[in-house]
């Protein structure tokens, strides 16, 4: 009997697929530069720790640097924490309208997911040169 993949393996699998889609400019990554995806993913954990998940995601959305990154995070969180009832599917909207428990759980999950995403993005060469942004 085959065992179920661990949560960390599922995070890794989703992150790997996200990096591959970004690299090939597929789906939500069609209008973004792959290196911008990797660069913004690398900066996101610091932004989350500094300003919080909602502020970090709002910054990402406002700047439009990596719309695919926001889409991948939303997809992963919706898999891990399916929206209940009338809860919105958009991650940023869920953060704004959700309670403290949703914010805490989503923050922990996004930070854990970004560990894998950043490792794979770096491994696939999706890194930006040092620049201010």
Describe this structure in words.
It comes from Chloracidobacterium thermophilum (strain B). It is found in: Cytoplasm. InterPro entries: AF1862-like_dom_sf (IPR023101), CRISPR-assoc_prot_Cmr5 (IPR010160). This is CRISPR type III-B/RAMP module-associated protein Cmr5. One of its GO terms (cellular component) is cytoplasm. The chain is mostly helical and 133 residues long. It has one domain (7-124): AF1862-like domain (Peroxidase, domain 1). It contains 6 helices and no strands. The chain has helices spanning 7-23, 34-51, 53-63, 67-80, 91-97, 100-123. Helix 1 packs across helix 6 (100-123), helix 2 runs antiparallel to helix 3 (53-63) and helix 4 packs across helix 6 (100-123). The longest helix has 24 residues, at 100-123. The mean pLDDT is 92.
Can you lay out the helices and strands and say which pair or pack?
Blueprint: H1 7-23, H2 34-51, H3 53-63, H4 67-80, H5 91-97, H6 100-123
Helix pairs in contact: 1-4, 1-6, 2-3, 2-6, 4-6
Feature tags:
mainly alpha, 133 residues, Peroxidase, domain 1
Explain briefly what this protein structure is.
The protein is mostly helical. The protein has helices at 7-23, 34-51, 53-63, 67-80, 91-97, 100-123. Helix 1 (7-23) packs antiparallel against helix 4 (67-80).
């Amino acid at each position: 009997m085959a065992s179920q993949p661990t949560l960390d393996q599922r995070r890794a699998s989703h992150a790997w697929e996200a990096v591959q889609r970004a690299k090939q400019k597929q789906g939500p990554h069609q209008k973004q530069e792959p290196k911008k995806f990797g660069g913004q993913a690398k900066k996101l954990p610091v932004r989350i720790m500094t300003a919080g998940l909602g502020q970090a995601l709002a910054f990402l959305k406002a700047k439009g640097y990596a719309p695919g990154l926001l889409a991948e995070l939303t997809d992963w969180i919706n898999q891990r924490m399916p929206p209940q009832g009338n809860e919105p599917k958009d991650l940023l909207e869920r953060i704004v309208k959700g309670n403290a428990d949703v914010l805490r759980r989503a923050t922990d999950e996004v930070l854990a997911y970004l560990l894998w995403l950043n490792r794979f993005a770096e491994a696939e060469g999706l890194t930006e040169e040092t620049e201010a942004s």
